Amino acid sequence: MSHYLNTLKSLRKKPKKWLITGVAGFIGSNILEVLLKENQFVVGLDNFSTGHKENLLNVKNLVGDDLWKNFCFIEGNIFDFDTCKECCTGIDYVLHQAALGSVPRSIEDPIATNLSNITGFLNMLTASRDESVKSFTYAASSSTYGDHPALPKVENRIGKPLSPYAVTKYVNELYSEVFAMHYSFKSIGLRYFNVFGKRQDPNGSYAAVIPKWIASMINDQEVTIYGDGKNSRDFCYVDNVIQMNILSATSRDEDRNEVYNVALGDTTSLLELFTYLKNSLKACGVDYTKDPVFKDFRAGDVRYSQANINKAIEKLSYDPMTRVEKGIEKIVPWYLENFDRV
């Protein structure tokens, strides 16, 4: 049995109290679903700026009323320190997912990105320290690697940030180091690489590529590729991200005050991704026949991205169990079943 499955078994025997910020978002709601199914007690914080009430209702329907009663939701902002303190009271493990994502959005509105991702982060970090939580795990980002050309990306080698969003995520890591130095409050940062899964919002200008393309294909609309299609990403199915959050929260103290890549350690080009999505939709009865439309690269985007995940494997026993194609096969039926939402 893997270390992760053993960890879940231990948690079921001795349930803990968790706080998930950004709980109504894509990643937050998926973590919530798993923790409730493992009979944990969860407090969730969200202001619905990018999260959705429908995501929480979806989780409620999946876990049932008996497990849903173990969830306490607080509507509020991480900008407000008193709210952060209230949420952290009596908490064992904090999973800080709340942030204002998207490189293009940060270029358009750097002030809003800074408020959420730096001020909000510092509030949560300070409140967690003040309330003596057992661990603080936060969503970092692969954007921190910036213009560093080497592949695969290794945690201790980064370049210059290419967007306000990347700046904010790097500042999170710096604050975490300073808190460990001055207050002995150690945390773990998880550098996410292009996470995808069910409940990821396909709508809006800043939607991630996979849900946006799925929605376009379902509606028989054109799919836009920025670049030549050879640009690649290390796409990571959300179940792998949930595993890393739980492993990080329950890790040994000596494995904290660290950042870890969260990915597959593999690459998928946008042209390959396009083919995977077409094939999965066809297997579900949707025959998409349009060719993609190519446009210029977007400002702030990197051309290639791939993670080295050896550190997470060696220190946290990370074992990514779902590959890209399998993850897409899982989510396409979900989007088709929830067509009225996309």
Description:
The protein is α/β, with parallel strands linked by helices. The protein has one domain: NAD(P)-binding Rossmann-like Domain (Rossmann fold), CATH 3.40.50.720. The chain contains 13 helices and 13 strands. Helix 2 links the parallel strand 1 and strand 2. The longest helix has 21 residues. It is globular, with a radius of gyration of 19 Å.
Helices and strands in order, then pairings?
Layout: H1 3-13, E1 17-21, H2 26-37, E2 41-46, H3 53-63, H4 65-68, E3 71-75, H5 81-88, E4 93-96, H6 103-108, H7 110-130, E5 135-141, H8 164-183, E6 187-192, E7 195-196, H9 209-218, E8 224-226, E9 232-233, E10 236-237, H10 238-249, E11 258-262, E12 268-269, H11 270-283, E13 293-295, H12 310-316, H13 324-337
Parallel strand pairs: 1-2, 1-4, 2-3, 4-5, 5-6, 6-11, 7-10, 8-13
Antiparallel strand pairs: 9-12
Helix pairs in contact: 2-3, 2-10, 5-7, 7-8, 9-11, 11-13
What's the short story on this structure?
With 342 residues, the chain is an alpha/beta fold. The protein is 44% helix and 15% strand.
Order of helices and strands: HEHEHHEHEHHEHEEHEEEHEEHEHH
Share of helix among residues? 40-55%
**Strand runs, count:** 13
| Total individual domains | 1
| Alpha-beta classification | alpha/beta
- Give the overall shape: globular
Number of helices: 13
Low-pLDDT residue spans: none
State the major sheet: 7 strands, parallel
Query: End-to-end span in angstroms?
Result: 38 Å
Mean pLDDT: 93
